[in-house]
Design a protein that fits this description.
By secondary structure, the protein is an alpha/beta fold. It has a single domain, classed as 3-Layer(aba) Sandwich (Rossmann fold), CATH 3.40.50. The strands form 3 sheets. The chain has a 7-stranded mixed sheet, sandwiched between helices. Strand 4, helix 4 and strand 5 form a beta-alpha-beta unit. The termini are far apart. The model has no long low-confidence stretch (mean pLDDT 86).
């Protein structure tokens, strides 16, 4: 791993075929203070009351986890790729957030299983997807038995519907705000195109806002109980 600005990044993002210069510029421009990606999560959080517990599903190196830790009392950050998880842990320690953000080296799914994380040669860690069986543990959110959940963020490269299926009881009980990235071609590759929206609508959530320049991040929320 190597430090770029405020972020430790995995070696896969630093090799010549990963376009190191591009990685460095994009990391600092998009994820630095005031970058467009930090603006996306802050736009979502503007709709959500402060406090409580949040989940950062697909945390990568912790950019969103750091912002979420300022908004919520506690964050559980799931990052299944071992090298990226190591960077997440180191970043949280450097930022003084290890006590508020719990980093878990697990994927989110609709069943307890063991999966592999794969990406195309030359692509950075952000584009890795769950592909087939492997040695990375995957868990259901429902099996965490959370007493409450205020916010669920999912950026799982097409695996979002699987994670939401595994959170059905938690959604019904806790009624959290949900932010997920929807890139249809990635969901289609997993056989779940459009399913994440259907799950949330069937659970009683409503669309609040599409966030980002391309509107790929969808924020859903539940109406307050009478």
């Amino acid at each position: 791993m190597k430090q770029v600005g405020e972020f430790w990044l995995p070696d896969i993002d630093l090799r010549w075929w990963s376009h190191w210069g591009k990685t460095r510029r994009k990391t600092l421009a998009r994820y630095g203070q005031g970058g467009p990606k930090t603006g996306d999560i802050e736009a979502a959080l503007a709709h959500i009351p402060r406090g409580g517990l949040a989940i950062d599903g697909g945390a990568n190196v912790g950019v969103y986890s750091r912002i979420m830790a300022r908004h919520f009392d506690r964050v559980i950050a799931f990052e299944p790729a071992p090298d990226t998880h190591a960077c997440l842990v180191r970043n949280l320690a450097d930022w003084g957030l290890a006590g508020r953000v719990e980093a878990r080296a697990q994927a989110l799914s609709d069943r307890a299983e063991s999966v592999a994380m794969k990406g195309r040669r030359g692509h950075r860690s952000l584009s890795r997807q769950v592909q087939g069986k492997g040695d990375i543990p995957a868990v259901r959110i429902d099996d965490l038995d959370l007493p409450q959940l205020a916010f669920l963020k999912l950026d799982l490269e097409g695996y979002e519907a699987r994670a939401l299926r595994g959170a059905a009881a938690t959604l019904a009980r806790c009624r959290p705000f949900v932010l997920f990235e929807d890139k249809p071609h990635k969901a289609e590759a997993q056989g779940t195109k459009g399913e994440a929206h259907d799950i949330l609508l069937a659970a009683g959530a409503r669309l609040i806002e599409r966030i980002g320049v391309r509107g790929n991040d969808w924020l859903y929320g539940f109406k307050p109980l009478a």
